[in-house]
């Protein structure tokens, strides 16, 4: 992965919070919605060609289902204000892989608002009617201090795992991350995790320099994703 599809040319840095080069996010929804700047002609050309091929295909993806000509024309000139992500960054995977089930990826957090005309109906369809006005129900973990052994005889539970994924503020999402940004994020995360002690202390595995044996063990233990997901290329 080499960054946004629409960022082939040199990028300029946007001054951010406290004078840093980390862009500051839009302050409110109106700022995001009103953002509409010139999209590069080469990007528009790729979008038009990709949309024509998708429309003529027998793709069953949610992208094709909801990317009507009206929606396409409304979104093709829009960009997210902080990272400048375009519609091409959102739908490139679905344009290149007509057998996708969904066909879109959010390149940054603002994309959900800027390209809401596409994201909202796809999310609603994928999640069986979860509309943009719906809310996640309140959390109720019960009394975690009195949680007993769920399988005292060891007859049913083989293993348990709690896994979470988070994005880092000040960076775009995976489709638009550059190699330099990945390295910068790795340095920040590894430095922070190395300071943990006690039951929180663990081992950090950098992806670069990892032996095949360690890589396979982490895959077998479900800590590491397999390579070769063409939908993310």
UniProtKB/TrEMBL annotation:
InterPro entries: ATP-guanido_PTrfase (IPR000749), ATP-guanido_PTrfase_cat (IPR022414), ATP-guanido_PTrfase_N (IPR022413), ATP-guanido_PTrfase_N_sf (IPR036802), Gln_synth/guanido_kin_cat_dom (IPR014746). ATP binds at residues 159-163, 222. Residues 43-128 form the Phosphagen kinase N-terminal domain. The keyword Transferase applies. Residues 156-233 form the Phosphagen kinase C-terminal domain. One of its GO terms (biological process) is phosphocreatine biosynthetic process. The keyword Transcription regulation does not apply. PANTHER family: ARGININE KINASE 1-RELATED, ARGININE OR CREATINE KINASE. Belongs to the ATP:guanido phosphotransferase family. This is arginine kinase. It comes from Diploptera punctata.
